[in-house]
Design goal:
By secondary structure, the protein is mainly beta. Helix content is 2%, strand content 48%. The longest helix is centred in the first third of the chain and has 4 residues, at 52-55. Residues 24-160, 161-304 form the Fucolectin tachylectin-4 pentraxin-1 domain.
């Protein structure tokens, strides 16, 4: 006789990016600068053990000083390593907060906290675990009055969060010169005429991204043009769904964009809306839709890949139904 049992096996395929430190290509800024202690010195791969004034950053004595790293894309941050200055002022780092997220509100200091630095001995490097927090920005911030923020090195480790847009296909209602739809998903670095899409001036212009599969979309990030015409994005609708009716513009709305300042990137939460298509549309006459970057983040729906895989083990037959979650 034979006993038969059914098991459900779930295989989760995650990103294959290696654990990486981002030191080259990122952009840094701080709330103020003391003498030549510039913000960039915290990512120069020199922990400042010898000449402090040439290898460390420092703000002025002020309220709520901050230092911010722009990773230029959205990452899952595993760990942040901070090196303190190697002199008698090491205690200035005490109470600093490490924040990670996508918001620039309050100079990024409203983003979620990874860790609070109680103290770091002079000249030492301490590791702070962030458990895969997702963010475009890493902020070091000391709350309070009469504070100085000085950093001799900031190292960030993690991996790139998957931007679904880069493997999609883009199309738009019309094209102005060579401002083709694909330029909104090329991960370009804001060279306006080389890196942005644009329609003609028309009624209800739209741009559509085909993700090729149905995804649960958590967030859409839109980067506006960095010139005279930033206000043209005002009123644009972000729609997500599976319909191509009316060029996809009848799909449910994720968000309406009231405005995005010139050259900035704003993030819109879509709460896991399901869809193959991401549409941006500006309703109305004589409208122009220009996009310098569109990034889409989410997860795939479970897909049944194999059914009824039978494995014999003595008197037992196991049936394994395999799901792959992309």
């Amino acid at each position: 006789w034979c006993k038969s049992q059914v098991y459900v096996c779930v295989l989760v395929l995650e990103g294959t990016q290696l654990l990486t430190a981002w030191q080259i290509g990122a952009a840094v800024i701080q709330s103020s600068t003391f003498a030549g202690w510039f913000a960039e010195k915290a990512i120069d791969s020199n922990r400042g053990f010898q000449q402090l004034n040439t290898t460390c950053t420092s703000t002025l004595n002020e309220s709520n000083p901050w230092w911010r790293l722009d990773l230029l894309d959205v990452y899952r941050v595993s760990e942040v390593v901070i090196t303190s200055r190697n002199d008698s002022y090491a205690e200035q780092i005490n109470g600093a907060e490490i924040r990670i997220g996508n918001s620039l509100e309050n100079n990024g200091s409203n983003n979620p906290i990874c860790a609070v630095i109680s103290t770091i001995p002079a000249g030492e490097s301490y590791n702070f675990t962030c458990n895969g927090m997702v963010g475009h920005y890493v902020i070091i911030h000391i709350p309070g009055d009469w504070k100085i923020l000085s950093l001799c090195e900031v190292e960030v480790y993690g991996y790139l969060a998957e931007n679904l847009a880069v493997v999609g296909a883009a199309i738009q209602s019309s094209t102005s010169e060579d401002w083709i739809a694909e330029k909104a998903i090329d991960r370009g670095l804001q060279q306006l005429y080389a890196g942005c899409s644009s329609t003609l001036s028309e009624t209800n212009p739209w741009w559509r991204l085909d993700l090729h599969h149905i995804y649960r979309v958590n967030r859409v990030v839109v980067t506006n043009r960095n010139d005279c015409c930033a206000e043209r994005i005002n009123g644009a609708e972000i729609r997500i769904g599976n319909s191509l009716e009316n060029n996809g513009s009848n799909n449910p709305i994720c968000a309406v964009i009231p405005a995005i300042p010139a050259g900035e990137s704003y993030s819109y939460s879509c709460g896991g809306m399901e869809g193959r298509y991401v549409n941006l549309i500006i309703p109305g006459d004589m409208k122009t839709l220009t996009l310098c970057e569109v990034k889409v983040y989410g997860e795939g729906k479970p897909l049944i890949l194999l059914l009824d895989v039978r494995i014999s083990d003595n008197n037992y037959v196991f049936t394994c139904i395999i799901f792959i979650i992309f």
